[in-house]
Amino acid sequence: MTSLTIRPATIADTDLILHFVRELAIYEKAEHEVLATPAHVHRTLFCDNPKVFGLICLEGDTPVGFAVYFFNYSTWQGQHGLYLEDLYVSPEQRGKGAGKALLSHLAKIALDNNCGRFEWSVLDWNTPSIEFYDSLGAKPQSEWIRYRMTGEALQALAQQAPAPASA
C-alpha cells in the first residue's frame, strides 16, 4: 500500500487547488459561488507575506486532497488559533486516511504554533463529515451562530464607517 504524504502547496499547485475547490463546491451544491481564479490564489496563498496557507495530500505521486487554513486570534485565550477554511479529499480517494492525515497534520501545525484552538465549519447536512469529526473527538459549537456579509450589504456597511483618525 502506498503511504500518504502531506506537503505545503506551491504556486505550481494553483490549478490543482482550484480543481479541488470546484470539486468541493460541487459536493456542497454551490459550484456557482466559486469566483476564485489563478490570480486570486497567487495573490493570497503565494504572495510575499501570505495570511492563508495550503497543504496538498498525496498518495504516492497522486494528489488526493487539499486543505487551506489560516491563523485567527482568541482574545479570551490570548492565543492564536488555527482555522481550517477548506478540507477536501476526492471521492474516489476517500476511506484511505487522507482526511485524517490532513487533520492530524493541521493539529500538529496548530500545536507547533502555540495555538489554543483548531476550528472549522461543516454544513449541517454533511452527515459523513460530521460523523468523522465526532469520531476524532471534535465537538460542535452549537451555541454560536455564524454570520456572513457579502456584496451590497458589505459595501453599504463599509460606506458608513467613520473617517479615519488623523495622525
Task: Give a structural overview.
- It is a single chain.
- This protein is of the alpha+beta class.
- Helices cover 33% and strands 25% of the residues.
- The protein has helices at 14-27, 38-45, 98-112, 127-135, 151-159, and strands spanning 4-8, 52-59, 62-74, 79-89, 117-120.
- Strands 1-2-3-4-5 form a 5-stranded mixed β-sheet.
- It is globular.
- The termini are far apart.
Brief sketch in words of this structure:
The protein has helices at 14-27, 38-45, 98-112, 127-135, 151-159, and strands at residues 4-8, 52-59, 62-74, 79-89, 117-120.
Order of helices and strands: EHHEEEHEHH
Largest sheet at a glance? 5 strands, mixed
Cα end-to-end separation:
63 Å
Would you identify the regions where 5 or more consecutive residues have pLDDT less than 50? none
Q: Order of strands in the sheet with the most strands? A: 1-2-3-4-5
Label the structural class.
Answer: alpha+beta
Taking all Cα atoms into account, the compactness measure Rg is 18 Å
Mean pLDDT: 95
Helix content: 25-40%
Number of helices: 5
Into which percentage range does the β-strand content fall? 15-25%
Question: How many E strands?
Answer: 5
Q: In one word, what is the shape?
A: globular
